[in-house]
Every structure is written in C-alpha cells, then in structure tokens.
Design a protein that fits this description.
The protein is mainly alpha-helical and 205 residues long. It is 74% helix and 0% strand. It is built from ten helices and no strands. It has helices spanning 8-23, 34-55, 58-73, 75-89, 93-118, 122-154, 160-163, 166-171, 185-192, 198-202. The longest helix has 33 residues, at 122-154. The radius of gyration is 24 Å and the shape is elongated. The termini are far apart.
C-alpha cells in the first residue's frame, strides 16, 4: 500500500495556534505566533520520532501524536468547563487538573491501543486526517485574512469633529478620559496605523 506523508500532527498543531490568533487578530501581530508554531512543530517532531521507533510505524505514531496534540491544546477549554461544573459539584481546582490528566492519559492509551490493533489500515486514516487537518488550517487562514482586511479598511481616518457627538461639542468643551489600559506605541502603530511616540515623550518633560 502506498504510503502517505504523515502531516496531520503538524497541521493540527498549526490549526490550534492559528485558531487562537484568529480570535485575537486585531489585538496582536502575526509575528507573535511564529515562535509558538516553531516550538509546537519541534516538539511534535521529537515525539513523532520516539513513537515511530517504538511502534515501528510512522502512520500509527502520527495518529497517536495527533491525539496528544489535540489533548494538549484542549486543556484550557476542558479546564474552564470543569471549573463551571465545580460550582455545582464542589470539586477543587486541583481535582479538576488531576481529572483532566487522568482522562487525557486514558484517551491516549485508548488511541494507542486502537492504532496498534488497526495495523496497516491506519495508512488510509493518515491520508484522511491530512485532508481534514489541512482544511482546518485553510479555514483559519481565511478567517485571519478576512479579519485583517476588515481592520485595514476600518483604518480610514475619520475627522476628529465627526467622532465627537454634536451634543458634546455644543454643551461642553471639557472631556475627562479614564484609561484602564494603554497600548504600546508599536502595537498602536501596527494595529491602527497611529504613531503615538510623541505623546509619552510630551508628558515626561
């Protein structure tokens, strides 16, 4: 049977990181996901090599590693869900963490046993998983592209007088602005095209 390149563990790792970036594309730069991507791929490759040697089959190792990747990136979501249930069950945070680790271990062992039992049949599964994982990555890239395009279009400068409500400009000329957070000048420049460097310089003199 013709072998298929085992790409889905790497694609699923990329999907998980790109999914998080897609939800925050307007608040961070794409360059900030490069390091997590590289670290994820290196770790995935190392585990792949170890399991491939242990199992003697790269396709079986790939499916097991994909399960590990998804379990790793699902930890936060599962933990948050258990925290909500904790309010009803009385489980502590530590108990939830232990429960997640035990559950993830059992799932991994189940997947490991399954791929061992399937033998050469996992070659077909690798091709399918490559296709599905690749599709997930493409969807996230399209989402990111659409978000960044909308952001660029919204950067069109609007005259300050158009931003101030007519009632405010007519009734008062004093504005009290309280900021609960303030972005760095490089973030403001990258996300909104605004050079804010003169402002911090002005209030330090």
């Amino acid at each position: 049977m013709k072998r298929t390149a085992v790409l889905h563990p790497f694609l699923l790792g990329a999907f998980s990181i790109l999914f998080l970036y897609a939800q925050n594309a307007t608040e961070m730069r794409f360059g900030e996901v490069v390091l997590p991507l590289v670290v994820t791929w290196i770790a995935t490759a190392l585990v792949m090599v170890l399991l491939a040697r242990a199992l003697g089959n790269a396709d079986q190792a790939g499916i097991a590693v994909s399960a590990l990747v998804m379990a790793f990136f699902s930890f936060g979501l599962v933990f948050d869900s258990l925290e909500v249930l904790s309010e009803l069950t009385g489980f502590s945070t530590t108990a939830n963490q232990v429960l997640i680790l035990v559950g993830a271990t059992l799932i991994f062992l189940a997947v490991f046993s399954l791929v061992r039992a399937l033998g050469e049949k996992v070659v077909r599964m690798s091709a399918l998983l490559n296709f599905v994982a690749g599709g997930l990555v493409v969807v996230q890239l399209l989402t990111i592209g659409s978000t960044l395009l909308d952001q660029r279009e919204s950067r069109v400068a609007t005259p300050l007088e158009e931003k101030i409500p007519e009632s405010a400009s007519r009734n008062q000329d004093i504005f009290f602005i309280v900021l609960d957070g303030y972005g760095r000048h490089d973030v403001l420049q990258n996300l909104y095209g605004h050079d804010n460097r003169p402002f911090p310089v002005s209030y330090t003199h």
